[in-house]
Specification:
Helix content is 39%, strand content 12%. The protein is α/β, with parallel strands linked by helices. The chain has a 5-stranded mixed β-sheet. Strands 7, 8, 9, 10 and 12 form a 5-stranded mixed β-sheet that branches.
């Protein structure tokens, strides 16, 4: 999810931290400062279950170093293997182990399952109210259940549209598409058989719909949200099969089969390879989350020709923040209820939601911060490409959580792809997904 980038000097970061601790208002919950507060005394080490290899998370390393300097508590980062992240973390928590004090995890994977199982510690008593107000309001519900906060984000991954500006300009467009109608119009002009052999050499648009459930979850979720829909009703029953879901799935199918501006192979594409196709010019416009931005912009020799256009184009007539939200995900800290150092672990989790830790994410890795107070940082605005576009999406971002997500994603992937490949009509695919989820007790 992150890339190794050049680190900012530790001295500069520490000076920033020293200047900035007053911004959060820690007085109510035990101020983080040199000299070890009471909750830090007697705690030598906390272990963090990290989402993947540490070499790709230099910001995590930096914020852990800073936390140690401030509290005297060493942070031991466990680099969990990417292939077994969910299984390994779930097993450890289910067995009641205290191996990991804090886990760095996407709530969309495990919320509310871990809460319902009684494995996580609520964090309300260590999170200042002012900090919660600094988080995008549409994202807060995904961090909590029954009024209790269990996850704290330190970055967010807004979805945006990338495009080859040279190709778009050649097609006579001076601005990127803002809604589905404009996207289709532009992509038709950008879908070209360059050598006249009957095969398309340049596709106008593409998205990723690999049968891996997570990929389809995010892509269909993006289309669903910008059509004004949601995945779930308040009682946990499906909402994605309503008119908005039908509009979203119909559009995903139509751009492939009716307008023929998207390659049929999108049902095999993951976001990484899709961005490579964009870089090579095989695709002119593509949608993905901002975690791929650096990879895309640094692609050789085409990176300098790539731009981030706008937030994901939406159903015509909609207004962001009023009629719909953008699909945004991200990673969060949560606390193992069996931690032997519960109070210290809770403070570490709470700290990552504040200004300082979020600033690390942007300054060190160019990840987009979750805390909106950091959006004002002149340094981050100058450092993170297309900052204003990403900020707009993050402000109006949302993601829903639900129990048994792995099974839900598997059924969703099969249903969505059956509509794109025309094995079912969009309505038939939605009906099948709901019936299958009911049969397998997803809801």
């Amino acid at each position: 999810m992150t890339r190794k980038v050049k680190k900012v000097g530790f001295f500069v970061l520490m000076m920033f931290l020293l200047a900035g601790f007053s911004s959060i208002g820690w007085a109510d919950v035990g101020r983080l400062w040199y000299g070890q507060p009471d909750w830090a005394k007697g705690v030598d080490k906390l272990t963090v279950f990290n989402l993947g290899a540490v070499e790709y998370d230099p910001a995590i390393e930096e914020l852990c170093i800073a936390f140690e300097e401030i509290t005297g508590i060493k942070i031991d980062i466990y680099p969990a293997p990417a292939a077994t992240l969910l299984e390994e973390a779930t097993r450890s928590l289910a067995l009641g182990e205290s191996t990991y004090d804090v886990l760095d995890f996407p709530p969309i994977w495990c919320m509310p399952d871990w809460v319902d199982a009684g494995w996580l510690e609520p964090l309300n008593d260590v999170i200042p109210p002012g900090m919660i107000e600094q988080w995008p309001p549409g994202m807060v519900p995904s961090l909590m259940k029954d009024g209790k906060i269990y996850f704290v984000r330190h970055q967010v991954e807004p979805r945006v549209v990338y495009y080859r500006k040279d190709l778009v300009e050649q097609a006579g467009y001076g601005k990127p598409p803002k809604d589905w109608n404009e996207l289709v119009d532009l992509a038709k002009k950008l879908t070209i058989d360059k050598d006249g052999d009957g095969n398309i050499d340049q596709w106008g648009y593409a998205y990723s719909a690999s049968p891996t459930g997570e990929t389809v979850h995010e892509t269909f979720g993006s289309f669903l949200y910008v059509a004004g829909g949601e995945f779930w009703n308040e009682d946990g029953s499906p909402a994605f099969n309503g008119p908005e879901g039908l509009a979203a799935l119909t559009f995903m199918s139509d751009v492939v089969n009716k307008y023929k501006i998207v390659p049929p192979g999108v049902i095999t594409y993951r976001e990484g390879p899709l961005m490579d196709l964009l870089g090579s010019g095989a695709v002119a416009v593509a949608e993905g989350d901002c975690s791929l931005m650096l990879r895309t912009l640094s692609s050789e020799p085409y990176g300098e020709k790539i731009a981030v256009a706008v937030p994901a184009p939406y159903k015509a007539g909609m207004v962001s923040g009023k009629d719909f939200y953008y699909f945004s995900k991200g990673i969060s800290y949560c606390v193992n209820k069996n931690s032997k150092h519960l109070e210290a672990a809770k403070r570490l989790a709470a700290w990552v939601g504040g200004y300082e830790a979020n600033w690390f994410e942007g300054a060190v890795e160019l990840n987009f911060p979750f805390n909106r107070a950091v959006f004002r940082s002149p340094y981050l605005k100058s450092r993170i490409p297309f900052f204003e576009v990403l900020a707009k999406v993050a402000e109006a971002g949302k993601v829903e959580t639900h129990a048994n997500v792995p099974l839900f994603e598997d059924i969703l992937a099969k249903g969505v792809n059956s509509a794109i490949s025309q094995e079912r009509t969009p309505q038939e695919a939605l009906d099948w997904m709901v019936a299958e989820m009911r049969r397998q007790k997803v809801f």
